[in-house]
Amino acid sequence: MAMHSNWNPWHGCIKCSEGCQYCYVYYLDRMRGKSGADVYKTKTGFKYPLSRDRSRNYKIQSGEMISVCMTSDFFLEEADEWRKDAWDIIHTRSDVIFLLLTKRPERIEKCLPKNWGEGWENVFLNVTCENQNRADERVPILLELPFKHKGLHCAPLLGPISIGDYLDSGQIEQVACGGENYGGSRPCDFEWVKSLREECKSRNITFCFMETGSSFIKDGKTYRIRNKQLQNTQAVQSNMTFQGKPMHFELKDEFGNPIPKEKLYVPHYARKCDECSFRILCNGCFNCGACEGWS
């Protein structure tokens, strides 16, 4: 997804589970001579959702979905002092959808703002479940939390996972999965992907197979796929992604009034987007050229 779709109010994270072993943040920071464990508030990016163009219009349009803390964790303890200001920004932009992804659902309840109530309509909470143990640990917590929209992120997928009982709660609206990269080569088995998909499809829940990872098992044979674009292409060609019941976010303007559908952002997709496994999760194409240089 294009950087336009990401908001990183702070950067850096502390590893906390099996899925963190080959963290891409640590990998990319190491290439720059930095440490992914250094947590800091971003200077120019913190107020990104409030940025405007020369005509004083918000750069992020009403109805867009923005992924938050893709280089950290929104509920990281080290970021507690900055989170209130981040919540204020999310509340101000009640016309934008904010996707939060975390491995720390046990911290969420005490990190919610005072005016949270039963949840804000413009927040989509996703919990990472890289294996069955983490699913059984984190999903029950997720189901008890007061959020209007919830999803699961099974990546890197490190083993077979069954989440049918959790999906039966009717609270999970989307599930995504993918293999491991960035120095890691723990295998992702296609049978695990197919099983997850079937559990979602049988309940009409959207499922996205994002990428194979660098080590992919199919029909008992292990394939080494180092090229990220090829991993993406193989995921598309597997036809595993399934569009289930569409999510509906009741977004509001600055005065608290519902925004008519015709005034919401409509994603633009280029021809090449038809061959991208992330399309079903994407905010649309901004012609940034990022996907041209995948390797």
Features:
295 residues; seven-stranded parallel β-sheet; single chain; three-stranded mixed β-sheet; 6 helices; 20% helix; alpha/beta
Instruction: State the helicity in percent bands.
Output: 10-25%
- Globular, elongated, flat, extended or rod-shaped: what is the shape? globular
Number of helices: 6
Q: Can you summarize the main beta sheet?
A: 7 strands, parallel
How would you classify the helix and strand content by structural class?
Answer: alpha/beta
Give the ordered list of helices and strands: EEHEEHEEHEHEEHEEEH
Give me the side-by-side strand order of the main sheet: 1-4-5-6-7-8-10
Q: For the terminal residues, how far apart are their CA atoms?
A: 15 Å
The percent range for strand residues is: 15-25%
- Poorly predicted regions: none
Domain count: 1
What is the mean predicted local confidence, pLDDT?
94
Radius of gyration: 19 Å
Record field, number of beta strands: 12
Describe the model:
This protein is an alpha/beta fold. The protein has one domain (3-293). It is 20% helix and 16% strand. The chain has six helices and twelve strands. It has helices spanning 24-31, 80-92, 132-144, 164-167, 190-201, 228-237; strands spanning 6-7, 10-11, 40-41, 65-68, 97-102, 123-128, 149-154, 172-177, 188-189, 206-209, 215-218, 221-224. The strands form three sheets. It has a seven-stranded parallel sheet with strand order 1-4-5-6-7-8-10. The mean pLDDT is 94.
